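Could you show me some protein's one-letter sequence and the numbers that encode its backbone in two labelled lines?

___
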Amino acid sequence: KADVFGHHGRLETGTLKVGDTVQAQVDTARRAATMRNHSVTHLMHKALREVLGAHVQQKGSLVDADKTRFDFAHNAPVTPEQIAEIERRVNAEVLANEATQARVMDIESAQKTGAMMLFGEKYGDSVRVLDIGSSRELCGGTHTSRTGDIGLFSITAEGGVAAGVRRVEAVTGDNALHYMQAMETALGGVAGTLKVLPKDVPARVTAVLDQVRKLERELAALKGKLASAQGDDMLAQALDIKGAKVLAAKLEGA
């Protein structure tokens, strides 16, 4: 039933019986983190459509306190440049710090507002139209009061999950900050190993890989020359028996 709200709990200590009264308490920190990830999913959905095309359509999602995971219709990998543009657009909405707005109205009125409706979703006679930044969708979930409450947005993963379906994972707020700091630490470690500044790591890695490929080619050429020389030495040891060259040899590691 669309107008019934259920709470799912797990008994960790004590006992319960029918008729007992319990008191529920919201984990405010966890709720706030979930709100940030939920609100940014709307902004990300809109940015995906703007950057990749109007064919992008939600195929599934998971929002919790740690991340948002979003599946959508698209027939090619999302390039690093496209990911950067999606992040730029979403973070621009966050910085604008616009207030969110939720309105309950009948389904026909909601359609006239241009609100995005998910294909295959079942809606009741009354729906909740949610405006977050430049995004307008039908949604009954919990959200931030302003876009700025999201704090920071970063995409952490992108990949395919089925034919014509891609998946992105992203983080917000403290989780985004921790992700950025972890990446900076990893980059700093690589820079230290290569003895260059962090900004010079890509060029240095490219140079190292080029040098490795060059050495591999030289090594292969030297192995070929060594094998040829060994063959010549062995041929010199061959015996001529009634006009036929006969060679007996033991090949190590053949």
In short: The first helix runs from residue 28 to 52. The chain has five helices and nine strands.
